[in-house]
Amino acid sequence: MTDNWEAILAVASALIAVGAMSAAISQARSAKGAWEAADKAVVEAKRSADASEVSAEAAARSAAADEEMARLAKEKADREARYVVPWRVEPIAKSSYRLVNASDEDAVNVYLHGDVEVMSDRFENGDTLRAGSGVQFFDVRDMQSREDLKVEWERPRDAESDGPFGRPKHEWEYPL
Which of 52, 82, 112 is the last residue of a domain? Predict the structure, then answer.
């Protein structure tokens, strides 16, 4: 009978060993899956870090571009704030005057409006008046018409770049 107990114990031990081995295999498979999952997570984390780095670099470039645009807009606003109307009217005779571009830059696309008549073969509406130059005109108003001189022009930098609403025009009026 002892042999039976020994056989039963041997079978029980073998069953326990098989169970332990089965548990170890299961744990090994689980550990392998965990390692694979961990490897996948590391790869995905690296991809995410790379994408974040690229995104951060793009954000930095965008911020730098925004700062540059703001700087240029401020410079332009400062220039415009310092801009002085360039015109001066000099009387010549009773109804004769000279319109002078008294600035240090040319005036482009110059138009004279009102009850005036230009006295120059060298100037027509839409021409450029160079810095320091002028054009002579007559005041041709009568009793019914009392329009003053109105000058429209563009600055050279304005004439070179059309904005979304066309070129910026400047206007100046002078009572005759």
Answer: 82
